[in-house]
Design goal:
- This protein is mainly α.
- The protein has 14 helices and no strands.
- The protein has one domain.
- Helix 4 crosses helix 9 and helix 5 (93-121) packs antiparallel against helix 7 (146-159).
- It is globular, with a radius of gyration of 20 Å.
Length: 355
Amino acid sequence: MNSVTARSTAEFCEGEQGASRPRIHETWPDIAKGIGIMLVVYGHVARGVEKAGLPIDPGFFEVVDALIYAFHMPLFFFVSGYLFWGSVSARGFLAVLPSRLMLLLWLYVIWSLGHGAIEVLLGRLTNGNLQWAEVFALWQPRAHFWYLYALALLVLVSSAFVWVPERYRAIALFIAATLAFTAPGLGTGWYPLLVVCWFLVYFAAGFLLAAYRFRGHKFQPHALLAYLFWVALAIGWLGLVQQNLFFKIAAATVGIGLVGLLSLVLARYAARVSRWLAILGAAALPIYLAHILAGSGARIVLQKLLGVDAVWLHLLLGVGTGVLLPWALWVLTTCWGQGGWLWALPKGRKAGVRR
């Protein structure tokens, strides 16, 4: 497999092996992404089942849906910020920013248009009623592609802190993100500002953790204690300022912490399980981009063509196809050297990641 193409998208948050500083590879972020992407796929499959009118138990659906959506996307922003620190530490903000934004923009455009076109053409079989005008309104993120849009904004805003001395950069970003979280949209209701205010705090928390853990490229327990102090201080302050935001960020922080801890335990004590989760985590973005097409396709076949309404079977096959089919497509296209543009910039352009 061509390592440049195969991992350029899956590890687009990690950046390149830097010439100025060595990179330290860890397994737990890939494991955490593997867990996270399975939760994402399940959440979308379950919502599709519920929206299609299949007899899913309302209590079960609502409880599990609330638990997953409390932290699964903050988890991805947290891990992205953690890995982004390695990129800027190795190469600097100004070197990382152009390739990262180009990749995110490319993926956002081609997948928004391609996915939207399929939804319109198969409109009679799906739960939605998408129109062509909505497909081409790229200034308004649609469906799950808002994540690419939001991540590009977070990378851009974080890069603006290049003017802060490196020693204080991570904490300055985290403080600014915490303040922004208390005023979503800064009172404007403008979507780009809203997503920055909603999610920058998680990205900045991951960035801060990496900065504390690997300063000097050595594991420093006292640095982790300092990190926990700042996070606890931010959460406590939010509790005094706005209780509704306190519960939101507290739930996300607990979820991120539990997944992170589970990932560390699996990496240490369950090599086989952690290896498979890390494989999924390495392909988290390709799976994220294509999982709704695969999962929805499974539901359409079962419900519309075969007349199956067994919820457990819809959930099982929906999650299985939503994870495995995009993963297989990613592997095959990168092995064959054809279709790599689905996951990375076309050849002749800088892909943003080299291994």
